[in-house]
Amino acid sequence: MPEEKRRAIWAIYVWCRRTDELVDGPLAELTTPETLERWEKQLESVFSGHPLDDLDVALVDTLERFAIDIQPFRDMIAGQRMDLYRSRYETFEELRLYCYRVAGTVGLMSTAVMGVDTTPHTAPWDRHLESLIDPVGEAIDLGIANQLTNILRDVGEDARRGRIYIPLEDLARFDYTEQDLFNNVVDDRWRKLMRFQIQRARKFYTSAEKGIRALSEDARWPVWSALILYSRILDVIERNQYDVFNRRAYVPSLTKMFCLPTAWLRAKVL
Questions:
Q1: Overall pTM surpassing 0.85 (yes/no)
Q2: 172 strand-pairing partners
Q3: What does CATH list as the number for 87-270?
Q4: Are 64 and 14 in contact (CB under 8 A)?
């Protein structure tokens, strides 16, 4: 990926990280709705070309070079607001909105930087790409897939904080209770529930794959790499027999190394 795009993606990542830290960092207990209101005001200042600190400068530079809309940034802040007053989600549709706001928005921000492939596709097997000139939905789906993966990996950690992100309707579907979750119960009910959640996350990854081919050629390898590496966390959860309470799912370094050539091939061939 060209240096200009790498620097822009870094600036976006830094802003997203700072935003996440407000509700999930070491000083999260001090964050109030007013804190997020001030953060949104600072965002508006950045989009007006007036940085308030050194880290803002990088984002201002990015906004001058790429046409990025402010709405995904606002939506991410709205997602952090949800974490201030919600610790449960009744339905998947409610959770999906949360996942869009805290992660799907990253796909929108990044796609504006990465750009899309405008090369005419005349081969019969490539003609469907004409409908993916702006793969917005697929970019959002990748963010949602990543967030669903985070949720499944961090079930135990979130439970210790009194949070349950798995939809309550899904717990009920498999006759698994909140108390079971807080007691770290791993039985057939839990394994069936987790298989269901993993299957759902993989559907979002599959949808996201369709959009990568529409990105600019110089952006495909890093996106394929991120998708493959993150989706491997689901494989690890399965190998750990769905015990996310006592065994943290992570992808070993050697596996990561082997994933990179696969991602490169997909970027060139698919």
A1: yes
A2: none
A3: 1.10.600.10
A4: no
